[in-house]
Design brief:
The complex is a heterodimer of chains A (about 525) and B (about 325). Chain A contains 16 helices and 20 strands. With about 525 residues, chain A is of the alpha+beta class. Chain A folds into three domains: about 140 residues, Periplasmic binding protein-like II (D-Maltodextrin-Binding Protein, domain 2, 3-Layer(aba) Sandwich), CATH 3.40.190; about 120 residues, Dipeptide-binding Protein, domain 1; about 220 residues, Roll (Dipeptide-binding Protein, domain 3). In chain A, strands 1, 8, 9, 10, 11, 12, 13, 14, 15, 16, 17 and 18 form a twelve-stranded mixed sheet that branches. In chain A, strands 4-5-7-6 form a four-stranded antiparallel sheet, with helices on one face. A two-stranded antiparallel ribbon of chain A has the order 2-3. Chain B has two domains: about 70 residues, no CATH class; about 230 residues, Orthogonal Bundle (MetI-like fold). The mean pLDDT of chain B is about 85. In chain B, about 75% of the residues lie in helices and about 0% in strands. Chain B is mainly α and about 325 residues long.
Amino acid sequence: MKLRNWSWLAILVMLGLVVAACSSTAASEGGSTIVVGLQAEPVTLDAQQMSDYNSTRAGRNIFDALLHFKDESTDVEPALAESWDISPDGRVYTFHLRQGVKFHDGTDFNADAVVFSYERQIDPNHPYHDTGEFAYADFTFSMVDKIEKVDDFTVRISLKEPFAPFLANMAMHSATIVSPTAVEKYGRDFSKNPVGTGPFKFVSWTPGVEIVLEKNPDYWGGAPSVDKVIYRPIIDDQARLNELEAGSVDFIVNIPPDDLARLKADTRFTTVEQPGMHTWYVVFNCQKAPFDDVRVRQAVNYAIDRQAIIEGILQNTGTLANSPLPPVLWSYTFDVQSYEFNQEKAKQLLAEAGYPDGLSINFWVPTSGSGMQQPVAMGQAIQADLKKVGVDAKIETFEWGTYLDKTIVEDAQTLPEIFQMSWVGDNGDPDNFLYILLSGDQYPPNGFNLGHCKDDAVDKILREARTTLDQAKRTELYVQAQKMLVEDAFWVPIDHETQIVVMKNSIKNFKLHPTGDFRFRDVLVEP
Amino acid sequence: MTGYIIRRILALIPVLLGVSFLVFLILYLAPGDPALIILGPKANATSLAQLRHDLGLDQPFLIQYLRWLWRVLQGDWGRSIQLKREVLPLILTRFQATAYLTLFSALLAILFGIPAGIISATHQYSLLDRVSMVGILIGFSMPVFWLGILLQIFFSIYLGILPVSGMQSPNQQGFPDLLRHLVLPSMALATGAAVIIARMTRSSMLEVMQQDYIRTARAKGQIERLVIYRHALRNALIPIVTVIGLQVGYLLGGDILVEIVFSWPGIGLLMMNGIMARDFPLVQGAILLVASSYVVINLIVDILYSYLDPRIHYQ
């Protein structure tokens, strides 16, 4: 009785809450809606500025490019360009544009829009160049010499030299076509008011809460069946899973590996998996002893039990990497030297190289990072394996921003002997892995050959492959390059991460794409 | 009193100058290049240099700081490097979300913490006291993210009566919806705060209950309820209010763990991401706001002291 006042107040407040909480149950949506739980808030909805999965997954559906990656593959098919011609010397691409297409704001799609979309990114003097930061502009257009409008529906792009991956670049998010009127209207705020020609239209973005898209009923490729897609940032993996189980989210990414088996067995949900366009690897610093010696690099390749890392730490959310190239890309080959887990062989190679008593090295590891899976646990497993063959690896960890700063450097002498890295493919072309990551032309700061490793014979092949237009010939060259690169052992490739999404089983016909985009155009929602 | 408040508010200026200078310096000295983080490894050196120039990152430290300060004084808080949005509206929206959460959890913490402390104190060493002290110990030891996940599983999946996370349901707005979303994160946050408040209430009440004036009140024949509330509690409140003020000030900075588990669009998470991305304007703006709120809360607490205990004067 003594505490009556307080208790009554507390009880009243709690009752009020319960009533409020229970009275308004989730309102049912009109039409078919998919609520997607993303890992974090997208940074931008301007496809040309995107450089993270959350943004592309939410915003890529708003835009089209001249070309389109086919479902589940990185082969290209016509999109806003109905057809194209390539000059015999491989330097001039003429695109014939689709007619009668309109942007979501009613602006006509034509050659001017294409020129605007590309020039905006690459010409520093373009009046709308300062409306964004274009992370992929160099990557996508560095080979472009000139972009010209031939007539209202023809665009001609001349390259500085023949460049075979160019067509694949034209299907990337950075090569999407934006509405010039909308960029002029919104300026820098175009990134939160995106206007494209894609299958879904932008409706609203409430920061931290949701992004809403609705179907474009006039889509040139046929209107989507889903009426609305809502993207919600749900940062914590467990919370995202809880949302799915509570029924408030229909579709989630990044499933905690521990829960995957249970979800697969649950008949309420469908799991879709696909090996991603991703490689996780340990880089050797080839400019410093001991890894300037191929035998030591091979020894480390033999010393690490990669399968155990994939099963034990990654719980099979990745597949074993035998080559720098992920198996989803064309020209991938199994016919390479294999480094099975063999610590005796590792010790033998170390002894041959002059390290019979082992050696000490430094090993850099980021605490987390895009595509890095579980860097610290994986680093510790590698460290333990190396210890067994007498290689004492001292781990030093860094936060991701710092890590990038310290590993992408011109002077290899500042690097440790080994460090971790991962790569997610951009355009689905083997050049995007092999040339960029492993050619001697690609030392930082202008490339991503972080270990400063070089094999002149491989470089010659890779250069030839990027200027050859015939895909059969290119495949041959890349197969050859992979064999040589695996023998050179510039890396220890560990795994290719599997893309996994889980959704309510009322969602049908969803296919994962190697680029990591979520395509909802052909998806159906059963009532 | 008014003069005192004005002086305290004026004292904010050097505090904020100091805070902003320190934060700027720390971010400046921290390794990691914002341009590289924005453009990623796929950009070439020319584009990186161009962006550094555009962002003013190629300027010396002092110039960068003074430029930023000059703009803030003119009301231009800049644009977030990473999120490509104006800083001021962004941090205000996020701060508002954190403020809802803070107020609501403070309310819960007070409603449970103070009565629990009083019961413990007035029934010292009784079963009730022991139970509530053990409860406090458990509450205090429970990691907040874990408690949050348990609450989600129980209330959202098992009972299905409350939303798992977020601040509003898709296509819904308004107070009832916000309230529904507030309950679980507030419960998670309030547990820790309630425990601290309860312990403080208990010890403060125990001390006050020993005072002569309590004996006098009882001797007068005052009923026990009035003895506790009119004579004891009010006098015991000063340290309790201090603790509540500290808790509220702390929570206003955004509890990152709760914001992560409940995807609460608060200021803590925004700041953390800003720090990761070396987003100078964003982090600076957010810290200025949070530091100001902390100072203001302290001021309110000081003013409350003089209300609770008229012997305390400010000149």
